[in-house]
Structure prediction request, 596 residues.
Amino acid sequence: MEKERIGFIGLGIMGKRMAANLLAAGYPLVVRSSRDETRQFFASRKAAVVQTPEDVARLCDIIITMLPDSPEVKEVVFGTKGIFGAVRSGQVYIDMSSIDPASAKEAAEKLAEKGVSMLDAPVSGGQEKAENGTLSIMVGGDREVFERCLPIFSAMGRQITYIGGSGAGQIAKLANQVIVAVNIAVVAEAMCLGKKAGVDPRRIFEAISGGLAGSQCMTDKAPRMFNGDYTPGGKLVFHVKDFKNVLKAGSEFDASLPLTSLVMEMMEELLKDGFSDIDHGGIAKWYEKKNHVSLISE
Amino acid sequence: MEKERIGFIGLGIMGKRMAANLLAAGYPLVVRSSRDETRQFFASRKAAVVQTPEDVARLCDIIITMLPDSPEVKEVVFGTKGIFGAVRSGQVYIDMSSIDPASAKEAAEKLAEKGVSMLDAPVSGGQEKAENGTLSIMVGGDREVFERCLPIFSAMGRQITYIGGSGAGQIAKLANQVIVAVNIAVVAEAMCLGKKAGVDPRRIFEAISGGLAGSQCMTDKAPRMFNGDYTPGGKLVFHVKDFKNVLKAGSEFDASLPLTSLVMEMMEELLKDGFSDIDHGGIAKWYEKKNHVSLISE
Prediction:
């Protein structure tokens, strides 16, 4: 069976690597980018390079976007020379951006009027997993459409989970982000308690990370805290963006989010202090400031 | 080398199993208990059974306690017919209870005046790990005394970590408890968001538990939430007891504990609602009540 032609819009740090994996898997690819360098990168790999999202939609069976947030997605889909101007029945639109679930649902409904199926398929995992094709992908939309697109997802990710109807992928991603930020924050809270009490946080880490307190966040982020290394990884400013979407969804669905709200305040304080571009593990800096201590230890 | 005679006081669910492991490892054991059944259990296994903590101290080189909280430890050590009345230079007192670090330090100082070394050595892991001798043990006190006692700890636990000076073991235990309760709470917060948004929390669990959001608490407690199974495990009322000690230490050391304070409020509401004896995973019940949803799913 011939492989479906895929259009990819949003070739940033993540998107570029994901699109490259689609090329490597043998998918004919159409891209659009405002950056010369990106256009050359894909042109030299035999992808078709076009001018507008509308052009992408005209040429492809499947259209994928990987964009910063809801407004960018809306612009690319429904804006001037957007995808919406050229879509036709039978096409599939996959949004792999992390956006708010309500916007995902709304776009899916509008596209359905033209016979286009939309999947929301946000990812977790950073640049390295994008490069290695080992992202986690959480998918919302029709199950049959999901199954049709599974080979495409498999070219970009490893843990690929069908969550439920339209918007459900975004909800799973938000749940993920809530847990990650709070798990990071509580590691910092516990380690700062130790530090203030005169105990070496590294010893605490050693004692407890293998037990019930253990978490991937502790394993990944506590050593960064002890080294003061907040090279991103997942940038704090993006986590704040996701948390805005969490709080929007929380308000829409009337969900109680006290831990989320508290950690959001910490992150917003950090942004005000100029820490937008550090790793989200840098939530520890909020605790260091409040406690007048440093978690850096030998 | 002949094995040192160990006295064990506090033969509850945990202590009984820990003492039995010391017997199994060949340590001569002296116990004191107010319960007939417990006295018979140990007498039939060739342990000496005596009447008072003072008697235990008179007969043993090493005295271990495993008691509910600081007041019980103070009573057994410094109360009428307490250990303190009979201790002599060269003995070691190991308190394996989870108590507040200040009380541990204070007891250590008083005992030092009589030439007795004290270790604070709280454990993590429940009944099953106590039974299998696979507890995690976090130890504060003199390093040399810790090393002398390592074979004793090895009979009861697997992950045995020297944390630092007197009280440091208790600090590590409190750090552990902070992380555990908050990690449980945020799993419930994220899953309830999913539920309110119409998404099956089990799918979210499946999608995210292998990634950065993954934690031992999620692995152990989320399935309990989905089954409504809060058989303890670690009882909520004991976690509240530990959190009182966290907040006491936080106030003593001027540490900022916003997540701890928030989850303490949730747990105290649950105690008021009559949930003292459920597993600490039952923090999910706070979210279920606030959100008017159930996390139980097929």
